[in-house]
Amino acid sequence: MISLTKQCNVIISDEAYRVSDSIKSLKYRLSDIIEPDFGLLDQLLSLRVLTLRQYTKVRSGDKTAYEQNDALLDLLTSEEQCNKFLTALQRTQQQHVVNFIKENGGQ
Questions:
Q1: CB-count exposure of residue 107 (10 Å: 0-12, 13-18, 19+)
Q2: What is the pTM assigned to this prediction?
Q3: What is the C-alpha separation between 44 and 41, in angstroms, rounded?
């Protein structure tokens, strides 16, 4: 039973790793399709993916949506953040982006 539990943990963390890896490998393509306004950054702040300082930094200046997305994606460093990022995308009606990530860009 213990080895089965260990196997399940490996599978779970391997799956989470793939989500993180997919986000990293698709970063520049994701920058083109994520909509950072209309609630995404607010969701990430409420889910504690971003601190108030990070939120302000992503939104500050005259950044284009692409630049905001690049800054945002650079801040996703843990599996927990990546999973919460997917939740925030779903909550802001960006399921197509979630599907794109989970399918590793269709590959």
A1: exposed
A2: 0.80
A3: 5
Running DSSP on this structure, what letter comes out for residue 50? S
Residue reference for tokens 């990546």: 82
> CB–CB of 79/17 below 8 Å?
yes
Tell me, which fold does domain 2-106 have in CATH?
A: Death Domain, Fas (1.10.533)
At 35-78, the pLDDT tens digits run 998 999 999 999 999 999 999 999 988 999 999 999 999 999 99
CA distance 10 to 56: 36
**H helical segments located in the chain:** 2-25, 27-33, 40-46, 52-59, 65-74, 79-91, 95-102
Report domain extents, the chain: 2-106
